[in-house]
């Protein structure tokens, strides 16, 4: 059966990098019999410019009826003056909520060919391979009440609410334990249980779910310590699971340990394994339109999509091997440039991956 | 006039490291005419064991009447099964709230003698000198409502509230701008204004306060990006200002960039410059009682105390120079050990600083 993929280029470098992923999908369809069809829609600042909303209903409907969504990136300084409800980011958050994508999988992998790109000493990060499982549709990102209110004194007060139910915690923990079972069977749950009651409940539920996974070694870490340990000795981690906000911060820190965030994909899944896939880097407005952005994180996001949502792991392997090959050939976009390698632009990098496939 | 210092050894390695700081204060008093008197009290797990409360009223009263407080560290696995309200950490939070210590200054400084200790490449961290100004008596640490409630369905739900008034944001921003004026006049305010309305207000107020400091270059960064940038290029920062929770995470990450958290002091100040001073490292229960902990962060906390709360900067300089001298002599506790240096324990390190003074 033909699977439907919704393509959301988004803002900044989004359209350029997504174009390379689309070329790749076309090639897999034409030459390797991958049964997919694609459709394209607007989201983020691009959608706001078009119709005044960062997530038009038509886009959300298309996303709901697709088997998977490929997103470039959203946001940019152009839309920063807008109120939060109209910002490009709201388009992304609306997709996550609308599709129920509660499980965000963010690998932080150091490609051996790019070991030099890290700001950390080689012995600290060589072979790094962490999977961060971030809760994505709850917590302080979505909690009510929220907003800015004016007190009787005339002074204003800003409020957001961190809230998790047991079932929300349970389902993300199950994803994390399942992920750990497929990897090295070590799971670190990150909380601030010594201060925040909400994450005290988080820890309690993590322990309870852990009883169903006796083979997984469960540990707990306070978020401040986790931030330290990622810098001190990141290879101690296999899988980490945490809240929406902590996951936002820690997954970016973990990604940067590799020195090559232009290489890192991500998956956001719902209970039916329907998913949205996107590079972890942002829309990089400073280099948008120049044809120099690294398309590999988006291309690797397609690989994750094939593996998690389209049940086509053989195509995923194919892509990952092709990416490894172009790195071995010494091809590099600007963000991962190094002495002795060959500088290429976005399209040339995409072409090289097609070639390698 | 004789100044009063309250000494709170706390838990774990707290008593050992604080003992070295007390020796130092005694020496400054006896040999250099520093007019201070000290008193000692219980806090944290030690206080809980003694009277069932992590912050006895008598301790808080003594703290209020002191000019400054020196704290070792609190917490340990022994007290983790306790409910949040009775945990050692609550003693610390109670002191912060009770004394109104809203401004937490956390320097992340790389000592040139310890450059090798960092997990980052030398060129990335050489000369690192960041000051993180963390809001300490508001935000999600103290916001109401909080707790775990049971829903009609029987399911439980955990809640914490992130809340800041304009005046709370304003006063911490003023401390940060003042700090920047005494340094390199660059201030980065860290928020999540693209998602959290509370921190949108934070950004607005930071901009407004900035108008009073035209000489300070103010920038804004989302917290996830800040976590990345600390790993990628930490020397881009001079002073950072942020919320209680973000500051907890980022200051620990920044500290770990130096590779020697056993060296880093901190100050927590109220509007009258009354302050609590403590090493940023924890109570390290695994090495407690062995006489191997590094007392230098506590000793440097005394230097901060002399500078910020006791108006005795000449004594602060004296201590900092003495610490530099013992490092130059090659003395190292276990946490900062390196080939070719001389291993010493807690007391020997404290003695060496006295000697150097
Ligand atoms: C753009 C922003 C809303 C988003 C988030 O905070 O979740 C981004 O930082 C991410 O991590 O995907
Ligand atoms: C012990 C804990 C309550 C405390 C905090 O979270 O503030 C500590 O991590 C710190 O940073 O001083």
From TrEMBL, chains A, B:
Coarse class of the protein's main subcellular location: cytoplasm
Cofactors, names only: Mn(2+); Mg(2+)
Entries under PROSITE patterns matching the protein: IDH_IMDH
One Gene Ontology cellular component: cytosol
GO biological process: L-leucine biosynthetic process
SMART domains: Iso_dh
Functional pathway: Amino-acid biosynthesis; L-leucine biosynthesis; L-leucine from 3-methyl-2-oxobutanoate: step 3/4
Superkingdom, natural source: Bacteria
Pfam family, one: Iso_dh
Protein location: Cytoplasm
Positions bound to NAD(+): 76-89, 282-294
EC number: 1.1.1.85
GO terms, molecular function: 3-isopropylmalate dehydrogenase activity; magnesium ion binding; NAD binding
Catalytic activity: (2R,3S)-3-isopropylmalate + NAD(+) = 4-methyl-2-oxopentanoate + CO2 + NADH
Residues reported in the UniProt entry to bind Mg(2+): 224, 248, 252
Domain Isopropylmalate dehydrogenase-like residue range list: 4-353
Cofactor remark from the record: Binds 1 Mg(2+) or Mn(2+) ion per subunit.
Keywords: Amino-acid biosynthesis, Branched-chain amino acid biosynthesis, Cytoplasm, Leucine biosynthesis, Magnesium, Manganese, Metal-binding, NAD, Oxidoreductase
Function statement: Catalyzes the oxidation of 3-carboxy-2-hydroxy-4-methylpentanoate (3-isopropylmalate) to 3-carboxy-4-methyl-2-oxopentanoate. The product decarboxylates to 4-methyl-2 oxopentanoate.
Subunit comment: Homodimer.
Family of the protein in this entry: Belongs to the isocitrate and isopropylmalate dehydrogenases family. LeuB type 1 subfamily.
Protein name in UniProt: 3-isopropylmalate dehydrogenase
Species per Swiss-Prot/TrEMBL record: Halochromatium salexigens (Chromatium salexigens)
Phylogenetic lineage: Bacteria, Pseudomonadati, Pseudomonadota, Gammaproteobacteria, Chromatiales
Gene: leuB
